[in-house]
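Z., the sequence and structure:
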Amino acid sequence: MIVFVGRQQMLEALTGSRRLAFGRMTRHHEVNDLVWWALCKANVPAIKEPSGLVRDDGKRPDSSTLITWLSWLAGKSLAWDVTVVNTVAESYISISASPGGTAEHAAARKSAKYSSLPSSHIFQPLALETLGPINTTGITFFSEMGRRLTDVSGDPRVTTYLFQRVSLVVQCYNSVAFRGTLNDNNNNINLNVYSMTK
């Protein structure tokens, strides 16, 4: 069956303006699981939703390393929080005019939210856009993680593979969000989503 999609339906899928962004939380958790998995593979143990790092409002970062992330950080662990923002959302139109602008804006908001973390941790915002860009410090973080994975595996292509997997997770769940905007008459369309970290 061929489904013809109009511009409005595509914008609703990407911006999450219909049915509360079907698949949005799953995409967030999948990216966080990928980061956690890659760190563990790079011999950097990490824990999801660390209980000792609660903000004033009761929220906490997605995950934290259990050991020092970089030697020059003098014993500080790394805490991170993932956010995937919709590049074409109406509220981001002026920001998204510059490449990666929406991701940088989201990263700055995350950093401000977690500015009160204990001094034993540094915070790394991981802001990704639905259309691809990653915030600047996020790119540096993924590159360092790729370097560590290369040291462990000996394969120089690991960093490229890591960026590809991140991109695939975002694209995969973009399709889930799009599927969530279709009406019930189109249920015979089969979109299979597989975990990218298995």
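The first strand starts at residue 46 and ends at 48. Residues 1-7, 15-20, 193-198 have pLDDT under 50 and may be disordered.

Let me know what you think.
H.
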